[in-house]
Amino acid sequence: MAETKCPVCGCETFYVKNPEDEYDLYEFQCRDGSIRFDSDVDASGSPSIDNGTETFCNGCNWHGGFGTLAPEKL
Ligand SMILES: [Zn+2]
Predict the structure, then answer these.
(1) Distance 43 CA to ligand 1 centre (A)
(2) Residue 6 needs a FRET pair 20 to 30 A away by CA distance; which of 20, 31, 51, 68 works?
């Protein structure tokens, strides 16, 4: 099944920043199109992510809109 990977390094772990606190990070992986936050992320406090959400790779300097990561449509 499709897994979302960084277009640069292939890392499958990403994070987004709290819009109200850029030092507050939410780590997640994306499997089969669904976002799975790290187990230490409070589910009630996790941010909503859409295609325009600025997303950062956990393995390199890549960042961009979450929609950029969507698996290519064949
Ligand atoms: Zn990367």
Answers:
(1) 25
(2) 20
